[in-house]
Amino acid sequence: MTKEKILVIGASGQIGVELTLALRKIYGATNVIASDLREQNPLLEGTGPYVSLDVMNKEMLHVQVIRQGVTQIYLLAAILSATGEKNPALAWHLNMQGLLNVLDIAKEEKLTKVYWPSSIAVFGPTSPKKDCPQKTIIEPTTVYGISKYAGEFWCNYYFMKYGVDVRSLRYPGLISYKSAPGGGTTDYAIEIFHEALEEGHYKCFLERDTYLPMMYMPDAIRATIELMEAPKEKISIRTSYNLSAISFSPEEISTEIKKHIPEFTINYAPDYRQAIANSWPQSIDDSVAAKDWGWKPEFDLSAMTKDMLDNLRK
Ligand code: NAD
Ligand code: SER
């Protein structure tokens, strides 16, 4: 169907598994190579090629790109917000050097496109809390947020200076049932479903009224593919696009879960992740993505909750 050969780095992670499967449907199984530092996620087994790869080893990455005839890279390997605060040096090193390795190789091998996700974590306490705009004050206070903001400007630099067609989305907290989350502040909104079904109770590490921007994984995968397939002239943002779907608090999602599991209970025991959540906006204005390439979310809180519970029960 196409001559594109895609390498997904970090394919065994929360987004990587679902994105790899979606890309294989579009581009053909053999044209999408999954790769990760850890072993292949069982959900990917038998669905297409897999290589073991460390994005920090630039030489080996370069060899793989040439050997496999790679034309596009989706770079998902990173350390997320909560884990990053526990090991700031490692988070900075992986999140920055991994990206620079990929951008350099993209430039040298003239790859057609690169995808690299940023995050709502670029925003800090001085950014607007509600409907945070695309362009505003951005002063992140986590190492993860700092690395994402710096990464956005490296993407812009490689586009402006070398013409690398690198595209990016500032994902909100992503909620999914297929693959486990990797150490973020928004992970509570996934744990709550598992605990509700297994224990009937959830001890939440954020306060009841902590509103955060969130999105169901099918919307995030669709947004990623729509951005990557948009004509080049439609892409006006070369740092990273704001992206939005739902905003809710732990109390609101627990009320929604109770509609399906009436005996479900929740209590609140905020830890160090509360400070991270407090530094982020509560909702995001993604009107630039809507205008440039037609972004529109499909899942609201109630549709997402029903779908999560239906699938986890299976
Ligand atoms: P994840 O932690 O679930 O997956 C990351 C994967 O990268 C893991 O499988 C890990 O083994 C792999 N990896 C780590 N170091 C590596 C290395 N040196 N070489 C190769 N692979 C390595 O993360 P995720 O949630 O899937 O996030 C993917 C990307 O999306 C990240 O850049 C993250 O910052 C971004 N993002 C995620 C969310 C979210 O809610 N999940 C929100 C905003 C942005
Ligand atoms: N879900 C991510 C995190 O909490 C946001 O980038 O780290």
List the helices and strands and how they pair.
Layout: E1 6-9, H1 14-27, E2 32-36, E3 50-52, H2 58-68, E4 72-75, H3 81-86, H4 88-109, E5 113-115, E6 118-119, H5 143-162, E7 166-167, E8 169-171, E9 173-175, H6 188-198, E10 201-204, E11 212-216, H7 217-229, E12 241-242, E13 246-248, H8 250-258, E14 265-268, H9 273-279, H10 287-293, H11 301-313
Parallel strand pairs: 1-2, 1-4, 2-3, 4-5, 5-7, 6-8, 8-12, 9-11, 10-14
Antiparallel strand pairs: 11-13
The structure holds nicotinamide-adenine-dinucleotide (NAD) and serine.
Structure characteristics:
314 residues; alpha/beta; Rossmann fold; UDP-galactose 4-epimerase, domain 1; 2 domains; three-stranded parallel β-sheet; 15% strand; globular; binds nicotinamide-adenine-dinucleotide; binds serine
What does this 3D model show about the protein?
With 314 residues, the protein is of the alpha/beta class. It has two domains: 6-173 and 216-242, NAD(P)-binding Rossmann-like Domain (Rossmann fold); 175-214 and 245-313, UDP-galactose 4-epimerase, domain 1, CATH 3.90.25.10. Helices cover 42% and strands 15% of the residues. It has helices at 14-27, 58-68, 81-86, 88-109, 143-162, 188-198, 217-229, 250-258, 273-279, 287-293, 301-313; strands at residues 6-9, 32-36, 50-52, 72-75, 113-115, 118-119, 166-167, 169-171, 173-175, 201-204, 212-216, 241-242, 246-248, 265-268. It has a six-stranded parallel sheet with strand order 3-2-1-4-5-7, with helices on both faces. It has a three-stranded parallel sheet with strand order 6-8-12. The protein is globular and about 55 Å long. The protein starts with 5 loop residues before the first strand and ends with a helix.
